[in-house]
Request: fold
Amino acid sequence: MVNTGTDPIPLGQSPVSLALSTDGRTLYVTGVPSTVSVIDTADDRLLGTFNGAPGDIVVHPDGKRLYIADAAAGVIEVAVATQTVSRTIDVGGRAGSLAITPDGRRIYATVDSLRAVAVVDTGLGKKIRQIGVGPEPSRVAVSPDGLRAYVCDVEAGSVTVIDTGTDTVVDSPVPVGKFPLAVAVSPDNRRVFAASLLDNKVSVIDAATLGVVGTVPVAGFPQDLRLSPDGRRLYVCPSDIDGITVVDTASLKVLRTVPIGGAPFRIVLTADGRRGYATDHEARTVVPFLASSVPVPAGTRPEAVAALGGGRVYVTASGDDSVSAVTAADTRIPCRGEPNAVVVAPDGSRAYVGNRTAKTVSVVDLETNTVVEEVSLSRQISGMSMTPDGELLCAAGDDGFSVLGLGPQVSEFLSAGGVVDGAQDVAVAPDGRHIFIAQAGTANVAVFDLAAFTDSLPPIPVGVDAEALALTPGGHLYVANLESASVTVIDAGSRTVLGTIAVAKFPWGVAASPDGQRVYVSHRDSGTVTVIDTATRKVIGQPIRVGRKPKGMAVSEDGRRLYVAASVSGLLVTVDTQTRAVIGRTAVGFRPVDVALTPDGRSACVAASGSDELCVVGLGPARIRVGERPVGLVAGNGLVYVADSGSGTVSVIDTRTNSLAGTPIPVGGQPHALALGPGGSRLYVTDSGSGQVSIVDTATRAVVGTPVPVGSAPLGAAVSPDGKRLYVAASDAATVTVVNTDSGTVVGTPATVGVAPAAVAVSADGARLFVADAGKEQLLVADAATLAVTATVTLPGPPHGLALSSDGKRLLVTVPAEKCLVLVDTATLAPSEPPIPVGSSPHGVALDPDGRRAYVANAASDTVSVVDC
Reply:
């Protein structure tokens, strides 16, 4: 059984550090008070505890000894067999972090009181040397080749490098940022990663030159690091996010956040890199997590999945008669020059990003997630607002504002300078005629008439340092006054002040609910959001704590969700507005300051000023109603075809609008599996009830000819690369049938293949078939011409779904009973070991066109697992 447990393991103590045994079967967790918890990783069961110390822990390569940092005694050695302290090693002070050499002969222990690293000979059981390093050394790591040790100097903001052959410092310390707390070395020894807590970043050091060659902005104050065994992924443990941030070490881009559900403090990965464990100090638990996959909600009983690329996935949900359109990966789009404002077009096709220091507006196509145009302005940008018709964009900053026309070509046709004093934000009135600009330099809001292009309208007095604006649908303007700790309410039509509401200190951002009943105010220094009832103009309830220095906010169309950009935390925080509880935190780059939602509510566009990017975050699947009991689906030419097994139809979805394209195609019976021919002109539909295949002309959406008999319960179908053959796996008949796609007739005699063939895939060269035998723990390989079985691949359990990579080199196989995904090398037919754990009862599987990610529909978990391949 593949262990997919992710439930927290209660310890009864606050965990401090953790380490895996050399065989990976046991997890040791130190905690407060001085105890060590022992966990069986086969079933994540707590076996017991023994007396130890509440410090860092390492395991000797022989697996027989543990070494634990003890604040009182130095370093203690524990015999694994007896779980007793075998000796105590004095290191001259309080031991902090420990690192053991690959041969197990030495331990490097930081001693902050000495500003040094103590070198311990594990054979002699004593300190043999002391190496001076920077002030307040925290973490230490030894390179995989054992030739160097790297030490984080917290106070100096640097990493000291030690030659372990001579135990001397190499060159000068490497500056990496404020408060470096963790360090990790790549498997090839070429790169070193150092996490700076207060800078919210990971620095990348070239081990040869000892120069910083890159940085990765991360969120939530990183305090621990782990590299995957192959070095492709870096796992960053933050203190302010309930998840683990995953970084691609090649591109140095954040890929995603693995949810943990608590406050992770330390992490460790299994030797295969499939699973990990995180300590939750506050909850007194250890949380197992799937390092190689992450679940995404996808409707009730997801069956089949199709991947369009870029994280766009479509999943049939047979339990609620729908298809879920899922954005399974967050997208980060480079925008040069401190992006600090973002608005989305009314039709959701484009996002406009104001880049403050670059004095530009980036035009982002949200279909392709690319910058399609860059418009230069006359001033820096502090805030932006769009007219209700989406035809004009107003950008304010410095001493004036610009107006851009949003036609096919975006251009600045009005630039007004010297008309305001320190523009901070701008709002367009509901009539689309007047604009309001918050000024930091004066205690008023400037008003301009867009129709007359004049600044002759009198300013409106407000509080000191007007910072942010929000308009309700009823035309009331709310102004956050940073220095006055107040919110001014203005009637936008008459341009008169209606009242002033006292709020907590430093109101920095403001947003109104779509129904106008609530206004939300973010507070810079307290990390909270205040809620105002617009009917009474009073603050209701206690402030909601969301994260450090929250600024921009957006409210969902139904008003049930508030999204807050917590700038210093680097998070997009999701608040349930009914319960006022924080229900989600997503890493969105460095210093996110503004957020806008797409009209369909599926995505949030977040301007991250510190990392110069627009982060497009999926907020949840769009549900598209189709026929009854949808099971199979296939995508092509901008359309998704869905087999409605309970309706006898095929529904067609337009992927541009995520809506049904015309009426469903009647095919009769119980349509199950779908396959598209090359070019997408022909759609093949199996009928699991009648044992036939129908051929549909996708241009006319009509069935061509008569159905072709292919055997009882045809559950799988695949077309040859040249489009001339259709292969159908009939489960009850235990056969594979070949259909000539030109004539629509059966070729030869169906061949018996396995016990219950449920899925079929054709090799890239068309010479072989891969057949999932759901009646036995096997994958069968057959000759595509003769249908003779030529090889058998043993699997952990009976398979269900298949997906072949675009290059034909890898075959992905789901195994429902074992809750896992198996990758098979199509050249050697060797399955991956161990299998990749996913959700419960995995059925369908699909690969992104680039082959980097797989998506698995977990029928019993109501999720899709996103798997790094």
